[in-house]
Amino acid sequence: MNKTQINNARKQGGFTLIELMIVVAIIGILAAIALPAYQTYTQKARFSEVVNATSGVKTGVEICVQTGVPALCTAVPTTGSAESASVTSVVIGGDATGYTITATPAAINGILAGDDYILTGVPTNGAVIWTKTGGCVAKNLC
């Protein structure tokens, strides 16, 4: 081996400390961005159970408005809607001018009981126009 080959071998020895520090800093920045996004994603996924709990009642109200049976759509059964560890209750209220379905989530995994999901339906020409409100809207969970 001549001197040039020995110098080239020493130059290819590995990474410098500054290069390793830059890589660690980049990984730290990516982790700082990814962790909150992941937490929001998991809360939205858990809250989808609360939204799905209202679907049967919502469909029942829509059928009631179209057929007129029963006469007052608050008599639509809500049994089975809250059969989940993530949902405390599903309640329907209102009168012939509008209906309100309120789903209250269980206070687990970062979701609070005050993050309720409220659907307000207004019968219009045989259909129901739904508007969602509640604590979940402010937190962007529903």
What descriptors fit this protein?
142 residues, alpha+beta, four-stranded antiparallel β-sheet, 4 helices, rod-shaped
Give the helix/strand layout.
Elements: H1 3-11, H2 17-53, H3 55-67, E1 87-95, E2 98-105, E3 117-124, E4 127-133, H4 135-138
Antiparallel strand pairs: 1-2, 2-3, 3-4
| Overall geometry | rod-shaped
Please identify the oligomeric state: single chain
* Tally of DSSP helical segments: 4
Order of helices and strands: HHHEEEEH
Poorly predicted regions: none
Gyration radius, rounded: 28 Å
Trace the largest sheet across and list its strands. Answer: 1-2-3-4
Instruction: Write down the overall mean pLDDT.
Output: 86
What is the distance, rounded to the nearest whole angstrom, between the alpha carbons of the first and last residues? 70 Å
Query: What portion of the residues fall into strands of 2 or more residues?
Result: 15-25%
> How is the biggest beta sheet arranged?
4 strands, antiparallel
Helicity level: 40-55%
Helix and strand composition category: alpha+beta
Strand segment tally: 4
Please, could you describe this protein's structure?
There is one protein chain. The chain has 142 residues and is an alpha+beta fold. Helix content is 44%, strand content 23%. The chain contains four helices and four strands, in the order H-H-H-E-E-E-E-H. The chain has a four-stranded antiparallel sheet. A hairpin with a 2-residue loop joins strand 1 (87-95) and strand 2 (98-105). It is rod-shaped, with a radius of gyration of 28 Å. The model has no long low-confidence stretch (mean pLDDT 86).
